[in-house]
Design a protein that fits this description.
By secondary structure, this protein is of the alpha/beta class. The chain is built from 11 helices and 15 strands. The structure holds manganese (II) ion (MN).
């Protein structure tokens, strides 16, 4: 028998809403998983990728991660993981550093047997390179086998990677596939194999309304997958529909009915009525003790459809528009160097020249315009899913969270043999909340992180 915790998408280091408290929340959620692993004395902690939110975690995030992994190490609980799209770098993987320190093991094509189960790993691989994958997993002698992978797999929402293909092409007969990337938990079977997303451990976007948690997976006669929820930062979701003649006072009245103390308050205003000033409402919510408040007036869109900018976070808005432009990877990098980079002004010209020259030499694909993936961004899931999944049972994967794979910028085509270069487009951002999946604001899942091409 083998009993493991299956977690993933912990996004350590994510200062959501530019809040250091939120950064600590992500750390705390992961620490709860570690606490439970030790309390339950599981045989291993399996991490399905996106340990870090960013490929450049800060030193404090690294130190905290080492501290937490060391707690597992002290209890002789192995930490087995794959690399997600958020944390993947071209120069090597953080996971290799932790492996070198004896704090983690990177799963791959060789079996890693824990008890009666052999575990294998498949890092996130950009779409453009999946055709070349040979799924060449080596044989094992265990009773059971499980694949740990990071990506958007069928039959879950927003899938762009066929689970059937992986299972068919793999020489191993897997009992279960333990997944990360889609932040919405869910469990299904594909060709008699259990396929499950554990979901994120903290809300990496306001679209992640259901409770956060992880899976407790037991391999015995069969595979038993149980969901455990985590005690995370409260999010208060309020939708106010105004009638003609109503305005800010009505919104305030509705908001006063909610306890927002220490919560992230996510408010949307719909319907008719008079204009409201989101900033004033956000201020009143934070005055009442909310950690963060985000108010979105959905009615703006109808009259101003071309201008899908939410001033809740201008950086995200700019990033989203740039994503929509469908620029090549090289162009995005030039933009990053000039606009938002850490390069001193005096060095911008030289830096841009050097990087473009480098790409001309080795990475011509970087000059391909991004494919048009507008229309796939954000939550294209059924709005109805949101309601049906609100019990957090995990049976549904409505996955508003992690939908845009940034396919437009995957033509990176460089020769790095390490799998899992992060896509240029980030996948799971939506700080503006709301429940309309087609709303461009909601599609602001696409935070473009251009630091590192
Ligand atoms: Mn993720």
């Amino acid at each position: 028998m083998t009993r493991v915790i299956h977690t993933g998408d912990t996004h350590l280091g994510y200062a959501q809403y530019h809040s250091q408290t939120r950064r600590a929340d992500f750390r705390d959620a992961f620490e709860q998983v570690i606490d439970d692993a030790i309390d339950e004395d599981v045989d291993a902690v399996i991490h399905a990728g996106d340990l870090f939110d960013d490929r450049r975690p800060e030193l404090s995030d690294l130190l905290e991660t080492i501290r937490l992994l060391r707690r597992l190490q002290g209890e002789k609980i192995p930490f087995l993981a794959v690399v997600g799209n958020h944390e993947s770098t071209r120069s090597g993987q953080w996971l290799d550093l932790f492996e070198d320190l004896g704090l983690a093991e990177r799963l791959g094509t060789e079996p890693r047997t824990v008890g009666s189960t052999a575990f294998y790993g498949l890092d996130h691989v950009p779409k453009s390179r999946r055709a070349d994958l040979d799924y060449d997993f080596r044989p094992h002698n265990a009773d059971h086998a499980a694949l740990v992978a990071h990506g958007l797999f069928t039959p879950f929402a927003h899938a762009d990677w066929e689970t059937e293909t992986v299972l068919e092409e793999s020489p191993i007969d897997f009992d279960a596939v333990l997944l990360g990337d889609n932040h919405e938990p869910g469990t299904e079977t594909v060709d008699d194999t259990w396929v499950t997303y554990c979901g994120s451990t903290e809300r990496a976007s306001a679209a992640e309304e259901t409770p956060r948690g992880y899976n407790l997976v037991t391999f015995d006669d069969g595979v038993d997958i149980r969901r455990r929820t985590l005690d995370t930062r409260p999010f208060v979701f309020v939708s106010v529909s105004l009638s003609a003649g109503e305005g800010a006072e009505r919104v305030h009245e509705q908001l006063r009915q909610h306890d927002v103390t220490d919560a992230v308050a996510v408010v949307e205003v719909t319907g008719e009525g008079e204009p409201v000033a989101p900033a004033a409402m956000e201020e009143s919510l934070t005055d009442r003790g909310a950690l963060v408040a985000r108010v979105t007036d959905r009615r703006d869109r109808e009259s101003d459809a071309d201008l899908d900018v939410s001033f809740a976070d201008p950086d995200d808005a700019v990033a989203e528009r740039i994503h929509d432009l469908g620029l090549s990877e090289a162009a995005l990098e030039v933009d990053e160097t000039i606009r938002a980079g850490e390069t001193a002004d005096a060095n911008v010209r030289a830096t841009v020249e050097a990087r473009v020259a480098e790409q001309l030499d080795g990475d011509r694909a970087a000059f391909q315009p991004a494919a048009d993936d507008s229309g796939q961004g954000g939550g294209s899931a059924d709005e109805a899913d949101e309601g049906t999944n609100s019990d957090g049972s995990g049976a549904e994967a409505d996955g508003h969270s992690n939908s845009d794979d940034g396919s437009g910028v995957e033509t990176d085509g460089h020769s790095d043999t390490d799998s899992g270069d992060a896509d240029a487009t980030d996948t799971d951002r939506n700080e503006n909340g709301g429940s309309d999946p087609d709303d461009p604001d909601r599609a602001a899942d696409t935070q473009v992180t251009m630091e590192d091409f």
